[in-house]
Amino acid sequence: MTDPRAAVAAVVDPEIRVVTIDELGILRSVDEDAATGRVVVTITPTYTGCPAMDVIRADIRRALAAAGHPDAEVRTVYAPAWSTDWISEGGRAKLAAAGIAPPAPVRGGSVVPLTLAVRCPRCGSPETEQVSRFGSTACKALWRCRSCSEPFDHLKAL
Ligand SMILES: [Zn+2]
Prior knowledge:
By secondary structure, this protein is an alpha/beta fold. 22% of the residues lie in helices and 21% in strands. The protein has helices at 4-9, 21-24, 52-66, 89-97, and strands at residues 27-32, 39-43, 73-76, 100-101, 128-132, 140-145, 151-155. The strands form two sheets. A four-stranded mixed beta sheet has the order 4-7-6-5. It has a three-stranded mixed beta sheet with strand order 1-2-3. Strand 6 (140-145) and strand 7 form a beta hairpin. The structure holds zinc ion (ZN). The site of zinc ion has 8 residues, from loops.
C-alpha cells in the first residue's frame, strides 16, 4: 500500500491541472482511523459552490483506491474558509508559469480589492482589467492586460 497522504497530495486540480490540491491548499488533512484503518481525507473548497469539488472528491477516492485504500472517506469542511494564502509558494509559481494569475494574499481575513493586485502573467504589468466574471471555468474570471492586450484567467478569491 502506498502512503495515503502522498497519494492524495498528488491529485491535481481538475480545472487548473498544473497544480495539485495540496499546492492549492484545498487538502487539509489525511488521517487513518486507528481502529478501522480507514483513510479520512478533509478538504476545503476554494469557494462555495465550486463545481470542481465533486470531481476532486472522486479523484481523491480513485487515487486512494489505486494506493490500496478503497474505502476512503472524503469530508468537506467550510470553516475556516479557504483563503488564497493557503496556496503554496510552489503552487503560485506553477500558476504563474501556466498564465494564471495567482490571487493576491488576503490579509486579516478581509477581502482586499483584487483589482489593484492582478498582474499580467505574461508581461507582469499591473495595468489589467476584468473582462468577465467568468473565465474558462466557474472558478476563474477572465482578465485582460492593457499593456500587451493578453487575455488571461485569474483565480477567483473569496
Ligand atoms: Zn501583459
